[in-house]
Specification:
heterodimer; A: 13 helices; globular; B: alpha/beta; seven-stranded mixed β-sheet
Chain lengths: 319, 432
């Protein structure tokens, strides 16, 4: 019994103390993963805030935007022109979603809208594979002037490696988050978005165009998806298996709250750092592979004790 | 009179149509292609499917088929999903299917029990259940030219020849699915016998492109060598993560599904030095591949990007089709029929000869090692050679290394006996 106590309560902390460079590396890798999870979660939050829809298609939007960018460049379009055209494609997608899906489903139950996003997912998967093929593609990292290579820090004879691409991912994500925060709080459209998020009927009554807001929201989610696609694609590659990673955003959302931008960030960081620490220091007790379920266990605990998440709004239904 | 005339004309028309269909069926060889051009593993599935398709289409265009019978291919998309694979099987088995090549261990495991019932053989070329190499227990399943267990033993031999195995720590990173877990029993058995320490790093399917935790663990465990059983997007990500932690690439060996151009081209210079196992030729410098280019690719009947013809997985698809074609040819000679059945095909798979002389006749001299169909040995016991990525292409770096047959065979027989132990209907069946 003392062995179990030692393995759970003493040995992991002893390892952290004995190999501080490795511990810092684990924290850094967790931080970067957390930022990337937060990016994907942010796309979900934007749409959920404005329309109350859990957008199942957010993951494939990450892949679709990444493939569009890489595919355009493969056709000979310069990288930054391809980036602008891809933004245009994401706007057209947002417009079509509003025009063909959302507008026809106004006032339908949430589950109907959720099912519609599953349909959208299948359309984007099929369309993406039809247009771009199913092969794995390399992100045009150098062409987009995203730094590659690494820097080494050697604290006390140890070694901590910082990939420049990870640093860039953290900075770009931070800029995107600040930009979105300013957009929501300082602009007229941003305030309209918050009004729609609070109450659809009341917003309509003061002349806010619901349709226009939905297009803007889906476009903002498309931009977030494109940034996530570029950063994930640069770290591994652009392939359809990336959409599965988007499922990791679900525990992040449960943790941070479905309607909170800061919640997505904090939730992403808690999940990212938490799962790395748990996998490395406590994983061997479970036979490794704990990263796959750790985030969902945390989400389950939160669902039991704080279902609205850390930053979510408490829903009070009066009968 | 008119009524009789119409009835007679209709009867004649039906009879003529039936005889035409019968003649067509007589001259056709139906082969379902369970491929995956979509889904997370399409990156590997596409070039393999192209190679398989293009070789058989080349035989149709150049020789009029095999032994005078045209090959009819029907592609069915599985997306590397076992359920869809079984649906494809059920949808095509009634059309006179001769053999199934699922390109998925998960689908193969589902089809193995069906094969003796429907009398259609399964050729899981270099994948699937290793124990299926024991022909007396698995008369309807083949793993030519070698199995995962034999391959793993060849990889361990390669490591032993390059610095020794005893006292070393071997890391094994694998896709946490039926395919990736397949060689673990062999590794666990051999580790104490051969004196090496084993560290395992599973990668869940949904974590294929987020492997930083696994590679942090690799850094923590400090293995001397890493062996990978990966597929799809997992491979390139693993190589990039290995480079991130500065793991030496010339100590990182991928199995034959983890060392293709599709895996290394996206990695480029980062993967320089990475080693992979292989059993089929690389490049287009073979007359048969040139014929594929001439009769199929340039004729616009291939789905392959011309630049991928001759790549590792394309050529492996070609090799799979060569085995199928040679088995059909052998079955035709043995039965005297142009159009054969699944049972005839099994006979062909147990009796074809693909030695260097025959490979030369096929325009594939030096493409692979000798392979001979056999009743008892459905594995082939083939050797593997090793290739190394030079930053832009693979270069062959070793002669063929034979598996440790003395170690692997008894383990295969033990596993085969365990498989059939709880299957009463399997007790009486044998090969031949």
């Amino acid at each position: 019994m003392s062995g179990i106590f030692y393995d759970v309560l003493a040995d992991p902390f002893l390892q952290m103390w004995q190999m501080p460079d490795f511990f810092i590396q684990v924290l850094w890798e967790g931080f970067v993963s957390g930022i990337l999870y937060a990016l994907i979660a942010l796309g979900f939050v934007l749409i959920f805030k404005a329309s109350g829809i859990f957008n199942f298609a957010q993951g494939i939007m990450v892949v679709f935007s990444g493939l569009t960018l890489v595919g355009l460049h493969a056709l000979g379009v310069p990288a930054f022109v391809a980036l602008i055209i891809t933004l245009g494609v994401m706007y057209v997608l947002a417009y079509l979603v509003e025009r063909l899906v959302l507008r026809n489903l106004v006032n339908q139950p949430d589950i109907i809208l959720f099912m519609a996003t599953i349909g959208l997912t299948n359309i984007l998967i099929g369309g993406g594979q039809w247009i771009f093929g199913g092969e794995t593609k390399s992100m045009i990292t150098a062409e987009l002037m995203i730094p590659t290579g690494s820097s080494v820090w050697e604290p006390g004879g140890g070694i901590v490696i910082f990939q420049h691409i990870d640093i860039a991912a953290a900075l770009i994500a931070a800029m995107l988050i600040v930009g979105l925060a300013l957009f929501f709080s300082k602009t007229k459209v941003g305030r309209a978005l918050r009004a729609v998020a609070d109450d659809h009927q009341a917003s309509l009554s003061v002349g806010i165009s619901l349709n226009q807001i939905w297009v803007i929201t889906w476009f903002a989610a498309g931009i977030v998806a494109l940034v996530a696609g570029i950063m994930w694609g640069a770290r591994s590659d652009v392939s359809f298996s990336l959409q599965i990673i988007a499922l990791k955003a679900l525990p992040v959302l449960v943790l941070g709250g479905f309607t909170s931008v800061p919640g997505a960030i904090v939730g992403g960081l808690i999940i990212g750092i938490g799962e790395k620490l748990f996998e490395i220091y406590w994983g061997p007790l479970f036979g490794s592979g704990v990263e796959g379920w750790f985030a969902y266990v945390i989400a389950l605990v939160f669902l039991l004790f704080r279902p609205q998440g850390l930053f979510g709004e408490k829903i009070i239904e009066r009968v | 009179m008119l009524k009789k005339l119409i009835t007679g004309a209709l009867t004649a028309a039906v009879a003529i149509t039936a005889s035409i269909n019968a003649a067509q069926a007589e001259d056709e060889l139906f082969i379902p292609m369970l491929s995956y051009r979509t889904g997370p593993f399409a990156g590997g599935g596409i070039p393999f499917a192209n190679g398989f398709h293009d070789y058989l289409e080349m035989l149709n265009a150049r020789d009029g088929g095999i032994g005078g019978a045209k090959v009819v291919l029907e592609e069915c998309e599985t997306a590397y999903n076992a359920q869809k694979g079984v649906e494809c099987y059920e949808a095509t088995k009634g059309k006179g299917a001769l053999v199934y090549n699922p390109l998925s261990t998960g689908i193969t495991l589902q089809l193995i029990p069906k094969a003796p019932v429907d009398e259609i053989p399964v050729l899981s070329m270099g994948y699937g259940l290793s124990a299926a190499g024991v022909g007396e227990t698995f008369p309807w399943t083949f793993t030519y030219p070698t199995s995962y267990w034999s391959q793993m033993s060849s990889i361990l031999k390669y490591i032993d020849q390059n610095g020794g195995l005893k006292g070393k720590k071997i890391g094994f990173i694998y896709l946490d699915a039926g395919y990736g877990r397949e060689p673990i029993p062999l590794l666990e058995q051999l580790a104490p016998e051969m004196g090496f320490e084993l560290a395992m790093f599973p990668v869940a399917g949904k974590e294929m492109q987020a492997q930083s935790a696994q590679w942090l663990n690799v850094r923590k465990e400090r293995p001397d060598w890493m062996i990978m059983w990966g597929w799809g997007a997992m491979n390139a990500t693993a190589i990039k993560e290995a480079a991130k932690i500065r793991f030496p690439m010339d100590r990182f060996i991928g199995n034959w599904w983890s060392s293709a151009h599709a895996d290394l081209v996206p990695v480029g210079e980062t993967g320089k030095g990475y080693i992979g196992a292989n059993f089929s030729g690389i490049g287009t410098d073979f007359p048969a591949i040139q014929d594929i280019i001439k009769y199929v690719v340039e004729a616009g009947n291939s789905q392959a990007d011309p630049s991928t013809v001759g790549n590792v997985l394309y050529n492996r698809g070609v090799y799979n089709a060569v085995i199928v074609a040679e088995a059909i040819s052998a079955a035709q000679k043995m039965t005297g029929k142009k159009s054969i059945s699944g049972a005839d095909m099994r006979m062909g798979l147990e009796n074809f000869v693909l030695d260097q002389a025959r490979l030369g006749e096929l325009g594939l001299a030096g493409f692979t090692g000798d392979l001979k169909g056999d009743c008892v040995d459905h594995e082939g016991g083939g050797s593997v050679f090793f290739q190394q990525w030079n930053g832009s292409d693979f270069v062959k770096i070793s002669d063929p290394i034979a598996p440790m047959a003395d170690v692997v065979k008894p383990l295969l027989e033990e596993a085969a006996a365990a498989y059939k132990a709880d299957k009463p209907e399997w007790q009486g069946q044998t090969c031949g």
